[in-house]
Amino acid sequence: MVHLPTPTHEISHPLLHEKQIRLFVKRDDLIHQEIMGNKWRKLKYNLEEMKSRGLKSLVTLGGAYSNHIAAVAAAAHDYCLESIGIIRGDELHEASNPTLAFVHAKGMKLEFVDRPTYRAWRDNPAGILEKFPNSYFLPEGGTNRLAIKGCEEIIQEINESFDILVTPVGTGGTMAGLVGSARVDHKIIGISSLKGDFVHKSFKKLLTGNHIKGNNYEIIDHYHFGGYGKTRPELIDFINWFKENFSIQLDPIYTGKSFFGVWDMIKTDKFEKNLKIVLLHTGGLQGIEGFNRKNENIIQ
């Protein structure tokens, strides 16, 4: 069942009172138990487009712990569609981790390919469409024009006035939707989970390609903790501390880094006083079980 609009909760802490900041969390992790957060928003209009074309097969690609792969498998199962997942890593199989076991149980057909093949197909999906004709294709991470359209609806649900909206950044689709729908008095901040300056150029290209003209945004790229999928003890400690204090679970790939970044910026006076900041919780919690299996249950 889809729960919309998702709530926006204010959180309270002595640090926020000291710094004179009001902090809210937009709880998109509560949209759907399995099709969570920005993944549901990205799929919404793509599924409508797929239906309008009369297609019954959905093909996409991702890594072994991909939130996108998990969401596509769950959505296809709910909508009685065929799903095909092209997975990076030909050494893997259906039971390699909890994510792959979940999508296999949802009926997704898994195609394991080596990393060079994966990169080639990711950069040029013609090979995918040749192998799986009459299928609806979704790129890695699910970001395309219709995904951005779905993410544009997030701000419309926030009834509380705010100055800054902060989102994790991966492929950039969620942030593009926010930039495209933000008012002139809103600032959108993206906290990148990826290491490297390329994220700035990629995001500008995404905006240009989708005719999005908003420019009141900033991407912060120094809270990646070593790169995509990488963590450090201070990040894990923060995730556990945040759950203990506010009863909100964060993931170590996206939301943990985004929330950590904002909390650190508040502590170090990077924000002006009397601001109202909204943190977007984009979900991604399905990957915690697999992460904990690899890392001795360090996320509580």
Structural features, described:
This protein has 300 residues and is of the alpha/beta class. It folds into two domains: 169 residues, Rossmann fold (3-Layer(aba) Sandwich), CATH 3.40.50.1100; 105 residues, Rossmann fold. Helix 2 crosses helix 7. The protein is built from twelve helices and ten strands. The relative contact order is 0.16. The strands form two sheets. It has a six-stranded mixed sheet with strand order 1-2-10-7-8-9, sandwiched between helices. Strands 5-4-3-6 form a four-stranded parallel sheet. The mean pLDDT is 96. It is globular.
* Radius of gyration (Å): 19 Å
Q: What is the average of the pLDDT values?
A: 96
Portion in beta strands: 15-25%
Structural class given helices, strands, pairing? Answer: alpha/beta
- The count of helical stretches stands at 12
CATH C-level class of the largest domain is: Alpha Beta
Instruction: Give helix and strand order, one letter per element, not per position.
Output: EHEHEHEHEHHEHEHEHEHHEH
Taken together, the total number of domains comes to 2
List segments where confidence is low: pLDDT < 50 over at least 5 consecutive residues: none
Largest sheet: 6 strands, mixed
CATH architecture of the largest domain: 3-Layer(aba) Sandwich
So what's the overall shape? globular
SS elements, strand count: 10
How much helical structure, as a percent, in the residues? 25-40%
CATH fold group of the largest domain: Rossmann fold
The side-by-side strand order for the widest beta sheet comes to: 1-2-10-7-8-9
Please report the distance between the alpha carbons of the first and last residues.
Answer: 26 Å
